[in-house]
Hints:
The structure is a single chain. The chain has helices at residues 11-22, 64-69, 130-140, 153-164, 185-197, 243-247, 292-306, 371-382, 389-393, and strands at 4-7, 29-32, 72-75, 80-84, 89-92, 97-99, 102-105, 109-111, 124-126, 145-149, 168-173, 201-204, 208-213, 217-222, 225-228, 231-234, 238-240, 256-258, 269-271, 276-279, 286-287, 318-323, 326-332, 339-343, 352-358, 361-368. By secondary structure, the chain is an alpha/beta fold. The chain folds into 3 domains: 4-110 and 238-306, FAD/NAD(P)-binding domain, CATH 3.50.50; 113-234, 3-Layer(bba) Sandwich (FAD/NAD(P)-binding domain), CATH 3.50.50; 325-401, Enolase-like, domain 1 (2-Layer Sandwich), CATH 3.30.390.30. It has a 5-stranded parallel β-sheet. Strands 9-16-10-11-12 form a 5-stranded parallel β-sheet, covered by helices on one side. β14 (217-222) and β15 (225-228) form a beta hairpin. The model has no long low-confidence stretch (mean pLDDT 96). Residues 7-13, 32-35, 42-43, 45-46, 79-80, 106-108, 127-128, 154, 241, 244, 273-274, 290-293, 295, 319-321 line the site of flavin-adenine dinucleotide.
Amino acid sequence: MPPLIIVGAGQAAAQLVASLAQDGYSGPVTLLGDEPHLPYQRPPLSKKYLAGELALDRLYVKPAAFYEKAGVDLRLGTRVERIDRPGKAVILADGTALPYSTLVLATGSRPRRLALPGSELDGVFYLRTVADVDAIRGRFADARSLVVVGGGYIGLELAAVATKHGLQVTVLEQVPRLMARGVGPVVSAFYESLHRSEGVRLVTGAKVLGFEGKDRVTAVVAEDGVHPADLAVVGVGALPNVELAAAAGLKVENGIVVDAECRTDDPAIYAIGDCTKQVHALTGQPLRLESVHNALEQGRVAAAAICGRPPPTLQVPWFWSDQYDVKLQMVGLSQGHDQAVVRGDPGSGRSFAVFYLREGQLIAVDAVNRAPEFMLSKQLIADRARPDPAKLADERVAVKDLRS
Ligand SMILES: Cc1cc2nc3c(=O)[nH]c(=O)nc-3n(C[C@H](O)[C@H](O)[C@H](O)COP(=O)(O)OP(=O)(O)OC[C@H]3O[C@@H](n4cnc5c(N)ncnc54)[C@H](O)[C@@H]3O)c2cc1C
């Protein structure tokens, strides 16, 4: 029998391999990844790895021995160029056709690139891979100023690390508040003052027009003025890697469309992780989630479906971001909330939580250095709990008593 082929050797793929083994999959598995590394965790790239506090081998999801033991034919530095659906094969750059019995696309996403004057200059970087971070960190030594284009979580984590490293950092964000896609206004305002207090220059509502420099970037030009930059990093969102799927005629809508079992509209092809779009069990809405939690969950779901096992119980989606000594943990999906309740004082410390409710039901929480609230909320959201807003806001009520 031809192998099960996984295209893309990232977080989702590593979980799929582990879950297939746990679920008793006995057929051959081939894992094809275009990067030269074993599947690795990206979150530390903009955090401890960038800060030089973690070695590369600590990023690996599993050691090489794990794939050997699982009998996986692991081919790194190998890019799939095309899917031949009628022939049930993937085609590599050198024309080799590898037949599959089942195909899983785990191709992830890539940074959205700016097509602005000067954006191809040396010294303008994006941050997605180990290679990107190695290159950025290599420039830290002789750079004094860094301009970060984009005030999302990746840009802000980078700003925090670079500031601690001694660089003068400017963050240019086009919309009026930071991390606007992920958190509510109270949390955005907190992060704005946090970064300012750490010495970051922050400009919101700043439209970037281009990059200046002869051979190398020297400034970022925005509507509000010219910002000197020895180094510029762009973090303006990600695009799903859907091209293989689209060219093969699979259904793609800003993500490879998959059903609840992560199957595409071709029953022999699954897709998992950042590259997918799936109707979410919590909201009933089609969503493309870019998170480790989603990659892990879809890896498990696809493995169960492939092995003919019952689907695993789904958890409420969650996400985190580390900036300075502040851990932000987000759980649930806050879109559509009609009430936001703040517990703690965002103005006077580095610890508070915001609870988002819709028609009385808790749907999401942003917890800033508040692990207990985060942990409880995971459960409350899963239980569709309707906690008392007055209690949520009252610090005298213990976290364990917030349930109703
Ligand atoms: C800097 C950074 C910080 C992050 N921080 C957090 C965080 O704090 N918390 C969180 O939850 N999430 C975070 N994320 C997001 C998280 O890392 C992703 O959601 C996760 O990696 C998705 O896993 P994946 O397997 O879908 O994709 P990836 O891990 O990106 O893996 C996909 C792999 O497929 C390869 N590939 C693509 N096309 C082909 C092809 N044709 N042939 C062969 N290989 C191919 C890609 O090169 C890549 O190696 C962060 C991401 C970045 C970049």
